[in-house]
Design a protein that fits this description.
By secondary structure, the protein is α/β, with parallel strands linked by helices. It is built from six helices and eight strands; from the N terminus they run H-E-H-H-E-H-E-H-E-E-E-H-E-E. The model has no long low-confidence stretch (mean pLDDT about 95).
Length: about 160
Amino acid sequence: MKANLARMDVPLREIRYALATHYHIDHAGLAEELKREGVPLLVLDVQVDAIPIMKTWTKPEDNYVDITDEGNVIISFGQSRQLLSEIGIAGEILHTPGHSDHCVSLLLDDGSAFTGDLPPEAYAFDNPVALVTWRLLRARGANRVYPAHGPIRSIDAAPGS
């Protein structure tokens, strides 16, 4: 991550908060290291209980560092717009279960939705929770999806297109 930030000429000190869409190792595994570098971890209240559970899914070779409570900024979804506004981001954080119950997405006012591992709608036909989440995202103005694993696409585009 540090190498990628350096390549983009973004100093780590400029990152105001880290936000994990959910607490699985590939999304939050560096959280404590970022906190030790001075980046506070923004945690939604629905995510708090998921943090200690993440360790149960790690292996020694993951070199996972336990996420401590110190340096976590816990907020509700209702507080997200104000906090984001204070750091110059027009948007909100929404509860978007479908991959796990503690998943969240960042929805910017321009319609960009950062959805983490939310299953693509076309593949969620047997996942009613994910389908409700997709309806919520549409209702709140999402039009472009930035999934954690896969290409950016229109909210109505089929996965892979």
